[in-house]
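Handout, section B. The chain below has 122 residues.
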Amino acid sequence: MSTIILVDDQPIANFITRKLLEIEGFNKNVLDFTNPEKALAYLRGKQNVLIFLDLNMPEMNGWEFLDHLKSKAQRHKIIILTSSTSAIDKNKAKEYDSVIKYIEKPLNKNKFTELQPLLESL
């Protein structure tokens, strides 16, 4: 995976994810966005980007973001990183082929270690 983008309206969440990526050696081409619309503009015309996506954002929620990507036939790998513990959200995530993992915040070293084999296989 050549590019990783972080989409979360909370800058501290993006900072934590970026630092964990750096610690684990995934620090090349990591971009973060606090505005999902700007992230979508960046993704226009791109394929196969790994995206860490929050669900609860004010401008556009994660579901709208995913629907937009789907409508444009953009193929990316999505890791949902959210504060939502809702079973409804977890089940809804399974409806999207692009979603490869659902993680509840906060992301920490233990949760990230579980992701490592998945990240290395991309």
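Note. The first helix runs from residue 11 to 23. Compare this with the example in section A.
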